[in-house]
Specification:
CATH architecture of the largest domain: 3-Layer(aba) Sandwich
Low-confidence stretches: 2-25
Structural class: alpha/beta
Radius of gyration: 21 Å
Distance between the termini: 36 Å
CATH superfamily of the largest domain: Nitrogenase molybdenum iron protein domain
Oligomer: single chain
Number of domains: 2
Number of strands: 15
CATH topology of the largest domain: Rossmann fold
Helix content: 25-40%
Length: 313
């Protein structure tokens, strides 16, 4: 995602204004699909087709402006009762809701281009956003802030994230580099996939003090996922002190399934009962909950430093 100098100027002007609506200075940026987006005023009728977008909009202080979401409210009262939409449905259902902005991500734009084209033909702004690195997360939050007139709140999200991370790093820093735990972090069990080296999940692991044993994994296209076959995993069996797996829609796995996988008894972490599941929502989605994910993993790796902070599932 590329944010222009004009967009940065808009952020600075907005941060100086006491009124959120003043954040709507004319600005242009490119979304994750390389399309130019020009913002002249805040969007106020938003349909979010990605749960991370929905959660971040709530973090920016939006509520009534969100008229529809994809997926469940996931414990966020601001999303309770919102209309539910899916990119697999007839676009007329979305058009009938009269949104002025539909937020998607690249996977959706590539899989249902006709839906996106139909929405745009109806005069609806469609913006595709998804960061792949932590550095891009900050630009992503800022882009959402610009679209909604919440640039000051976006900067507050960035500041909160950085402050919380510094506190975690201070504790993890007590562990010498040579004593840090070596971890295999599973993304999709059935396909033997891990996370790409530059992915958000691996960043979370590293900030939690873990050493990624699959740093040589090959990234799958331009995604957060990387290929790492069983032979490669077993080649590192003696090094893997903790076996982590994200759990959720993307990877509906259990500890038993991992432990009973043929050949996996050779893995040190499996033999020692150090296989843990972590909610994918706190390690893979670009939201403030990545701080929770970092603390959770740190507590699993170093329970003596983070007592009561990790959960074995």
């Amino acid at each position: 995602m590329i944010i222009t100098r004009l967009l940065v100027l808009a952020f600075l002007l907005a941060c100086l204004s006491p009124h959120p609506a003043a954040a709507a200075a004319l600005a242009t940026f490119q979304d994750s699909e390389g399309k130019t987006v020009t913002v002249t005023k805040p969007y106020v009728r938003i349909v979010s087709l990605y749960p991370a977008h929905s959660e971040n909009l709530v973090s920016l202080g939006l509520g009534a402006e969100i008229i529809g979401i994809e997926g469940a409210a996931e414990g966020l009262p601001q999303l309770a009762g919102k209309k539910h939409f899916s990119y697999r449905e007839d676009p007329e259902k979305i058009i009938a809701a009269r949104p002025d902005l539909v937020l998607v991500r690249p996977m959706i734009e590539r899989s249902v281009p006709q839906l996106i084209a139909t929405l745009r033909q109806a005069g609806i702004t469609v913006v595709s956003l998804q960061p792949n690195t932590v550095e891009e997360i900050f630009d992503y939050w800022r882009a959402l802030g610009l679209l909604t007139g919440r640039t000051r709140q976006a900067e507050e999200m960035v500041a909160t994230f950085q402050t919380e991370l510094v506190a975690i790093r201070k504790i993890v820093g007590k562990v010498p580099e040579k004593a840090r735990v070596k971890v295999y972090f599973e993304a999709i069990h059935t396909k033997m996939k891990t996370f790409a080296r530059e992915s958000i999940a691996i960043y979370v692991l590293q900030q939690a003090g873990g050493i990624n044993v699959a740093a040589d994994a090959r990234q799958v296209r331009e995604t957060n996922i990387a290929a790492y076959g069983k032979e490669q995993i077993l080649a590192k069996a003696g090094e893997i002190e903790v076996f982590l797996a994200q759990q959720g829609r993307m990877n509906p796995v259990t500890i038993e399934a991992i432990s009973q996988e043929p050949g996996f008894q050779a893995i040190k972490a499996v033999r020692n009962g150090r296989v843990f599941l972590v909610d994918e929502r706190i390690v893979s989605r670009p939201t403030l909950r990545l701080i929770e994910g970092t603390k959770t993993i740190a507590a699993l790796l170093y329970p003596e430093l983070f007592p009561g902070g990790g959960q074995k599932k």
